[in-house]
Amino acid sequence: MKEGLKPLVFAIFFLLCIRPAFAQNLPVSPYGLSYINSVQLYQKSLLNHPEKQMYSLAGIPGIIFDLRYSTDNNFMHKNLYPKNIKTTYLRKPAYVALDSVSSELARQGLVLVIFDAYRPYSVTISLWNQVKDERYSANPAKGSGHNRGISVDLTLADAKTHELLPMPTGFDNFSDSAYQNFNELPAKRIANRELLSKIMEKYGFIPLFSEWWHYSWPETGSFEVLDLSFQQLSELEKNNH
């Protein structure tokens, strides 16, 4: 082996070894899934991996928050998050991509409206205990993109009036009408759905087939499931500034 390649090979080998070792030291839920449940573990996961940092979507200019799970205006008809939260979070690559989406939409006179993004793993467990149907709730044995900080639920609004653009259905509508390919709809609603899909996919997001509002950053296997509170993430953000 050439001398110049040895350090590179060693670095790759080290990274491949350290990641499984870190995962082995994580707590395991009753459903058999490893997850991060403390600030210390979260900060440890960021070592040499700045792309894993969670960023507040409040940093994206013009974005509107309609965080449905911090209200009772959701399919569970109750608050799942604290009432006073003002923002939500995504991992760095998803945040950067969403910022680019927002910038392009602004040039079209449109703005993003966020229904949900990061979801603590404990909330997913609570949902599962009540619903236990993977059509409506993530199985805690697998976790979700929301738990990993890479999924976002959103729609579009007029930037001046903040009036929502007509879409196929409302948020959390669990019918065929919410499918990405359902076309027995008024042309305007289809066009708006496709506008959202086109720009989200342009910047790397992947749509969920059964929910027109749900998009995820590609899962690389490197984003752990998180069970940090919104307060913990807020305090971390303050300390980083």
Description:
The protein has 241 residues and is α+β, with helices and mostly antiparallel strands. It has a domain at 40-166 and 224-233: Muramoyl-pentapeptide Carboxypeptidase, domain 2, CATH 3.30.1380. It is built from 7 helices and 7 strands. Strands 2-4-5-7-6 form a 5-stranded mixed β-sheet. A two-stranded antiparallel ribbon has the order 1-3. The longest helix is centred in the first third of the chain and has 19 residues, at 6-24.
| CATH class division of the domain at 40-166 and 224-233 | Alpha Beta
* CATH architecture assignment of the domain at 40-166 and 224-233: 2-Layer Sandwich
Percent range of helical residues: 25-40%
Rg, Å, rounded: 19 Å
In what range is the share of β-strand residues? 5-15%
Strand order of the largest sheet: 2-4-5-7-6
* Secondary-structure element order, N to C: HHEEEHEHHEHEEH
**Main pleated-sheet profile:** 5 strands, mixed
Question: Structural class per helix/strand content?
Answer: alpha+beta
Overall pLDDT confidence: 91
| Tertiary shape | globular
Poorly predicted runs of 5 or more residues: 5-20
End-to-end CA span: 45 Å
CATH-assigned fold name of the domain at 40-166 and 224-233: Muramoyl-pentapeptide Carboxypeptidase, domain 2
Tally of strands: 7
Q: Output the number of helix runs.
A: 7
Features:
single chain, about 240 residues, alpha+beta, Muramoyl-pentapeptide Carboxypeptidase, domain 2, five-stranded mixed beta sheet, two-stranded antiparallel sheet, 7 strands, about 35% helix, globular
